[in-house]
Each structure stands twice: as C-alpha cells, then as structure tokens.
Amino acid sequence: MLDRGVDRIPVSRPGFISRFVTALVRLILPVVALCASFALAFSLRDEPVPQLAVLGEIDPLLDPTDWINWGYLVLPLVFFVLNMTSRRYGAELALTASLIAWLLIAAGIVWALNAGIVADFEEAFASYALAGSFMGAIALAQLVNVLLFDWLRGIPWWKAPFLAALLGGIVFSILFNTRPAHVWDMELGGRLAVEAGLHFSWALVQLLPTYLLRSSVRPLPGFGGA
Predict the structure, then answer these.
(1) Is the pLDDT of residue 225 over 70?
(2) Which pTM does this prediction carry?
(3) Is 73 contained in some domain?
(4) Is 6 contained in some domain?
C-alpha cells in the first residue's frame, strides 16, 4: 500500500560549485599522468632503439634505426591513460583532461621562453611546422581514442581498450607521417608498417595493466564497463 499520509523528503542534487569542485579533483590524476607521459616521451626522444634493427633483416624498408627512438615507443602511454580515464569517468572528462594537459604544456613552454630558460623554441624542441604537425596528429588521435573507447565499452572488457589504443595510435601515425612536408615513397610505406606493428603491440601489452586495474578503476554509475 502507498503511504499517502507521509510527506516524502525531496532528494537534493549537488549544486554547481559542488559539481565543479568534484570535476576538478577528478581531473588532477589524469592531467598529471598525461603531462608525465608527454614529458617522458620528450625526454627519451634522443635515445635510439638498436634492438629493432633486426626488422631490417626481414626487409630493408622495415629498418627503423634511422628514425625510431624510445620517446616514440613510450608515447602510446597517452592512450593508456585516456583509456583508464574514460573507463572511470567517461568521454567528457577524458577529453577535458586532454585539453587541460595541452594547455598546461603550452603554458609551460611559453613560461620557459619568457623566463629565458629556453632561448629558442626550434632549437630546444622542433621546427614550428613539425611541432604543429605533431600536436595536430596526436590531438586528433586522442579524440579518436576517447570516442572509440566510449562507443565500444562493455563486454568483452578488452575490446574497448584494445581497439581504442590501436586505432588511436594508427591515426597518429598516418596523420603525422603523411604531413605535407614529408616525402611519400617506399620508405614511408615501410615506416607506416613498422609503426602500425608497434601500436598493435602496445595495444596488446597495455591490456595486462588494464586487466590488473579493472577491480580498482571501476566505472562510475552511468558508465558501462566490464
């Protein structure tokens, strides 16, 4: 029977300030992790990976020793961070974290230039054209990663993180390597093949930490996941 004589207490919803503060707190770890991933990749950009020279024995076009470095190998950490953020908080917060990370990186570079810590941008980092190509490629790859994860999340648990990391990496590789200033030749085809293999390997490897973190990084109510 219905308790018609009992007044029901309306459920109060969190106010704007409360939701804003909650979102800021949730953003801290993803933003720090994204910035750390980019910083690690940048710090290792001059470290060669001679072990991959073995690919040249299969086909000389697959030899990556002229361009591969440890910075490139750890760059897909960005997609792992976004996968875990999307799993826990959804696509909106993951994209917000990505945007804030980029803003912080840009602010740090501008501050370093104004403070005299970095004398010349192109000498310390890269040419403006190359930096712009990299930023555009990785930003679009992050967007693909987050949206694809959000679309595929669910059962089986591995589908969303695997395909989101794989396709995000491949999108970055294609966009960055087919920029207008790049020469389109057989070597480019070999490089794209090697990078696709690396992103496939990364997508597989990151499933292990994803599996181990599933119990502690659970989706919040309203977000599907397994």
Answers:
(1) no
(2) 0.87
(3) yes
(4) no
